[in-house]
């Protein structure tokens, strides 16, 4: 992994909310974290990255995403910590919602668990603020991520920083860094149910009969 020459050269001016001097940043993977951590680095924000994602299945996928994030943090010089891979707790939290699609109640419960874990980590470290890179993906519901952040704040007293990490050019920069740093291209959100849905969708496309092309249409340019 090699940083592009313009890394941390033109990040948006984003500062910590007043009254806080450090932030715990929940990160699900390097692609979602890239532009956010670049901004924090350039703006001199004192950040600690927290990888806490027991939703990711199978374990080989978990290790791949975790290790890529660790490599990126090491390269840019940001401290990080890794939470427990407590798969049992995650399955218990989403029980009864296995067949639901993405952006459903299952995803809300999944975010709740991960952001509560992050707020507890922050509290343990004496950090008064936390945020998450989860909503940098356009597939995720920012409202659900923020609701999880607010719930974790109410439960722990640690402030949730509800910054929109897609604004101020960060969505484009995210995609640019994914390409330039050649981050691993994930094909599903993370959990086994999301993976099964992705397979089902693919199979459906493969089974669908090819449309008949008429002779007239074949000649169209
Ligand atoms: S689809 Fe993604 S957000 Fe939803 S439950 Fe699975 S891992 Fe969590």
Key structural traits:
221 residues, alpha/beta, 5 strands, 8% strand
The average pLDDT value, as a whole number, equals 90
> Domains counted in the coordinates: how many?
1
The total count of strands amounts to 5
Order of helices and strands: EHEHEHHEHEHHH
Shape: globular
| Corresponding CATH superfamily | HUPs
Ends apart, CA distance between termini: 43 Å
Low-pLDDT ranges:
210-221
Question: What small molecules does the structure contain?
Answer: iron/sulfur cluster
CATH architectural arrangement: 3-Layer(aba) Sandwich
Task: State Rg.
Answer: 19 Å
User: Strand count, sense and closure of the main sheet?
Assistant: 5 strands, parallel
**For the largest beta sheet, what order do the strands appear in spatially?**
3-2-1-4-5
Helicity, as a percent range: 40-55%
Output the CATH topology. Rossmann fold
Determine the strand fraction and express it as a percent band: 5-15%
Protein architecture, described:
This protein has 221 residues and is of the alpha/beta class. It has one domain (23-210): 3-Layer(aba) Sandwich (Rossmann fold). It has helices at residues 30-42, 59-76, 87-94, 105-125, 142-156, 170-180, 192-207, 215-218, and strands spanning 23-26, 47-51, 80-82, 129-132, 159-160. Strands 3-2-1-4-5 form a five-stranded parallel sheet, sandwiched between helices. Helix 1 (30-42) runs parallel beside helix 2 (59-76), helix 1 crosses helix 6 and helix 4 crosses helix 5 (142-156). It starts with 22 loop residues before the first strand and ends with a helix. The relative contact order is 0.17. Bound molecules: iron/sulfur cluster. The site of iron/sulfur cluster has 10 residues, from helix 4 and helix 7. Iron/sulfur cluster binds next to helix 4 and helix 7.
């Amino acid at each position: 992994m090699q940083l592009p020459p313009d890394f941390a050269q033109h990040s948006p001016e984003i500062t910590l909310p007043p009254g806080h001097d450090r932030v715990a940043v929940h990160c699900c993977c390097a692609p979602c974290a890239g532009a956010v951590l670049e901004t924090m680095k350039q703006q001199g924000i004192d950040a600690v990255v927290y990888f806490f994602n027991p939703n990711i299945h199978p374990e080989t996928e978990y290790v791949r995403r975790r290790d890529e994030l660790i490599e990126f943090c090491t390269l840019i010089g940001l401290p990080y910590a890794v939470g427990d891979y407590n798969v049992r707790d995650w399955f218990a939290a989403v029980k009864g919602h296995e067949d639901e699609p993405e952006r459903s109640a299952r995803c809300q419960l999944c975010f709740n668990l991960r952001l509560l874990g992050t707020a507890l980590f922050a509290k343990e470290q004496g950090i008064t603020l936390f945020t998450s890179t989860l909503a940098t993906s356009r597939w995720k519901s920012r409202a659900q991520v923020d609701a999880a952040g607010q719930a974790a704040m109410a439960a722990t007293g640690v402030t949730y920083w509800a910054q929109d990490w897609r604004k101020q050019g960060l969505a484009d920069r995210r995609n640019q860094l994914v390409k330039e740093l050649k981050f691993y291209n994930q094909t599903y959100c993370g959990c086994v149910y999301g993976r099964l849905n992705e397979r089902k969708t693919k199979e459906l496309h493969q089974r669908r009969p090819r449309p008949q092309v008429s002779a007239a249409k074949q000649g169209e340019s």
